[in-house]
Specification:
Blueprint: H1 3-39, H2 46-53, H3 57-61, H4 67-90, H5 96-113, H6 115-126, H7 139-161, H8 169-189, H9 196-228
């Protein structure tokens, strides 16, 4: 076998091993999320996660150094998966109002899919001194800053296009975040009594209806002033 062929074969083997490693890493993270959902942060051990993922504990430690690191990695994976959908689905919509409605749907749907892990996150922060509060990766702060910037951009587009009233786009973004997070925290503790579709419609109607009303009112005032002149 020639040198180039051997090099290509070696490169292919390295690529295959890296793909296998990434697949194993993903399997461990998915198993960790399931265990955190079932047992909570305090009730979970690395051994539990290894058993769920069907890996030896020593093998798991080849990928992650501690339960705290696994918790942070699961949280970051959840955030990155959301951002991928946000940028690929919400930000591609041309109509600002449609995009904001799609964002509300994505946030609530994403919460429903990971509700157990969100509950585990809240439990971890409420646990007090039983265990050190697990630290989230610093990269999540960067993701959140990017998210708020993009959402502000959606509202800015809507304000400039006349769909929304003359609100500060950043304030609109933060208000929407506050509303969604309040519901997420409540539903983490209380089983929703209405189907997701009903909750989505109520939230869309309430939030978008409010900022649309301001826009229509502002246009009406402007038209009356022009008529009087």
């Amino acid at each position: 076998m020639g040198g180039e062929a051997m090099a290509a074969e070696k490169k292919g083997e390295v690529g295959r091993k890296e793909r296998e490693r990434q697949q194993h890493r993903l399997e461990i993270l998915e198993a960790a999320e399931r265990v955190f959902e079932r047992n909570g942060y305090l009730g979970t051990t690395v051994e539990d996660i290894a058993r769920e993922a069907e890996f030896a504990v020593g093998t798991l430690y080849n990928f992650f150094g501690s339960k705290e690191e696994l918790y942070g990695e699961v949280a970051e994976k959840t955030a990155r998966d959301f951002m991928e959908d946000f940028e690929g689905v919400v930000l591609t919509k041309e109509d600002a109002e449609e995009a904001v409605g799609s964002l509300i749907e994505l946030r609530l749907t994403h919460f429903e899919e990971h509700r157990g892990f969100f509950r585990a996150m809240l439990d971890a922060f409420r646990a007090g001194g039983q265990e050190p509060i697990p630290r989230l990766p610093g990269s999540m702060e960067t993701l959140y800053e990017r998210y708020i910037e993009r959402v502000s951009g959606l509202f800015e587009r809507g304000v400039k296009g006349g769909s929304f009233g003359e609100f500060d786009p950043l304030y609109l973004a933060l208000c929407l975040e506050g509303i969604i997070n309040a519901f997420v925290m409540y539903w983490s503790r209380h089983e929703p009594t209405e189907p997701l579709a009903v909750r989505l419609q109520k939230m869309r109607d309430g939030f978008l209806g409010g900022i649309r009303a301001r826009a229509k009112g502002a246009r009406g005032t402007h038209n009356e002033g022009a008529a009087d002149a």
